[in-house]
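Methods — Computational structure assignment.
A single polypeptide chain was analysed. Its primary sequence is given first, followed by the predicted tertiary structure written as structure tokens.
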Amino acid sequence: MKAAFLAIGSELLGTDRVDTNSLRLTEVLERYGVPMTRKAVIGDDEEEIAGEIRHLLSHADLLLISGGLGPTADDVTRAATGRALDRGLHLDEEVAEGIRRKFESHGLRMPDINRRQAQVLEGAELIPNRRGTAPGMRLDTEDGRTVFLLPGPPNELDGMIESHVEPWLEEHTDGGQREHRTLKVACLPESEVEQRITPAYEDFGRQTISILSQPGEIRLRFWAEGGDEARHGRLDAIETRLRELVGPAVFAGSEDEELEGVVGDLLRRAGRTVVTAESCTGGLVAERLTRVAGSSDYFLGAAVTYTNELKQAMLGVSEEMLREHGAVSEPVALAMARGVRERLGADFGIGITGVAGPGGGSEDKPVGTVHLTVVGPGRPNGDSDEIHRKVRFPGDRERIRRQTGQLALELLRRRLLDQPGVAT
């Protein structure tokens, strides 16, 4: 079985509304092993909607439609579906009476236009709406395809998913489910991750694994189908292979884990504390660390030293060093990390200085140039415990700041694990 989704509403084609219903329905379909192969958004145009319904049904066995079931003139989903499937519409007085009673239960009189919501397509099974006024419908086509008409408001949609869509899927699938897992990778380029995991495509199939990229982070999402034992066994095998191929850059094994939480857990287990001295990131790393509940166990505080004067006064960076090397330099970044660590009494100090843009760059230090440092207690083998990275990040100001924060946390994570340095 293949599924498709159609969201209806001109507001979804603008900038202030986002379709989330497709994500909710995709999540449900995955549990029953039904792939969502197509989805579309159409404005409130009856002819356009009818054409899209015909197109999607030529590619899918199951079509889920949300929106356009309200009482106003632009709610044309019922009429458009009738046109696409050559089904007539009739007013069901029993449905209309049920809508009227819902209004009365709230002390309201039903407007006449709400009678439009009682129009029912020929041959449709009605789906009661316990959370709103517009009933949904399910129709089976002559060639064995199924169409669900569902309301647009997510709360109402969820009610019909639970009462009708999931029971229908239970009945019409073989009991095997489709499930995915996610691995998160820090501070590797998408192309390098792709190159590293290519052998896994050969082992498990290219369509099994997807790469999702964002600044400073790659998500590897992979799927398996079937009964519980077979599905979990295959997911375990894929995950083991991907971790082997990508290496220590994998920092999390679920969608919910964020790098700041992983770093926090490592600090807590090690009984260590951290502080930050930030310039171009303006406290971003400290903010991320304190997003985590209980971060007071390991995060002591931060110094946001945007000016040279504050770098001197708060962190002890010397005027001579600033004059000789400039604020955006390795010596200054190290002095910032040392200074904040010493003054605030932490085990680890993070120092960050750079040019986030859009202005302020030079030929020697273009926009995106960042120096990151982590200074900590000495290692058992006597090695120096000062880590420095100079990088040049692409993108706009926010992208540069996001990548800088991610790399700073990743440097600390690797240090806490005593793993090799970060490739950038």
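Note: The chain has a mean pLDDT of 94.
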